[in-house]
Amino acid sequence: MNDYRGLLIKKQRKELDISLEALSHGVCSPSYLSKIENNILVANDDIYNLLFKKLGISTMDTIKEESIKQMLDLFFKYYMSSDSKIFKVMDELLECKDEVVSSCLFVQYQLFLLYASEMNSQINISLAEVEAYYSYMDDSQREYFNLFRLSSGNMELSDNEEWIFIRRLKAKANLYACQKNTFAAYDLYKTCLNYAVELGNKKLIAEILCSLGWLCLDIDLNQAEKYYTSAAQYDSQYRMLAFFNLGATMIQHKDCMEKGNQYLKKGLKSCTDDFFAVKYKEALFVYAILKENKRDAKRLIKELDDSKYIDVFSMMLNEDYQLNVGYQNRLKELKNDSSLFKFLFIKNCEYLHKYKEICVANNFI
């Protein structure tokens, strides 16, 4: 669901310091209102109109809204094509900031601000601020958000025009990669790498090498390893990302499981980021399970309390966990979360197929 009206109601209610109980009185139950605000359900238009009226929310004029929408579409089109006309559109959009607050364009506008912040240091907005609206985004908006996170979210900003040009070019390469246009993405990444080498920006070189490594993971693991290890040599900041991606992918292949395990251990040893530390331990736990090393698995799971997948890992410690219906259902939910869960899902399907007669007899499938 991505109905923006729940977001507007939540924002305005909190700004006016009105409780759920007070606002919902005479309209719906507090729990129903909470579900509307948190994008769990979409109510009928009458309920939205009543809530808007109580909060004093007036929506934007339709003609004006369509005009701003067209400008937003143009901005992202120009961004991806590195068109210099982007600056004129950006200036016009910045003048609309107050108008979009109560508009269905609010989320799209936050994405615009995020991208524009790379080109205008006076725009103060963080990745975390925009991520708070993730559940309200449609598929294309989520793609733009993830694209920014891949291309820009982990770098310091710069006023260097050449640097900004490379970043826009790299964002376009990321878009190709997300669209599975692998060859176009590869060529554009290589172009970005050449420019970055000319600039002598080691952080940027390392980031682009990581992108090339990521692109090659499912195509040529040896080439991916070369790109990732080069990135780690250029800038130690990228060692955590490089060694995790290599390790988590390699443990999924029989012929390089041990090498993957070594990358994971090496990366965890030098890891200084709590988020990545959990990711490393999750991958090491899966490796231990695959190798039927219950001792290491039980040791690692004690350090995974902060993992949002702790329920899945706990089930994996049990005998015949692959036959567990709860485990199977969770993998269906998580198979798109990461390549590691996609791998476990496929592996579980193969297991169930192998023992199909037993599974059918016991109503497992």
Describe the structure.
With 365 residues, the protein is mainly alpha-helical. Helices cover 68% and strands 0% of the residues. The chain contains 21 helices and no strands. α9 crosses α10. It is globular and about 60 Å long. The protein starts with a helix and ends with a helix. Residues 153-159 have low confidence and may be disordered.
Instruction: Please tell me how large the radius of gyration is.
Output: 24 Å
Oligomer: single chain
Q: Segments where pLDDT lies below 50 for 5+ residues?
A: 153-159
Coarse morphology: globular
Q: Could you describe the largest sheet, including whether it forms a barrel?
A: none
Give the total of beta strands.
Answer: 0
Ends distance:
30 Å
What attributes does this structure have?
365 residues; mainly alpha; 21 helices; 68% helix
Please summarize what this structure is.
This protein is 68% helix and 0% strand. The protein has 365 residues and is an all-alpha fold.
How are the secondary structure elements laid out?
Elements: H1 4-15, H2 20-24, H3 30-37, H4 45-55, H5 62-80, H6 86-94, H7 106-116, H8 127-131, H9 139-151, H10 161-178, H11 182-199, H12 202-216, H13 221-234, H14 239-250, H15 257-269, H16 274-290, H17 294-301, H18 310-316, H19 325-334, H20 339-354, H21 356-361
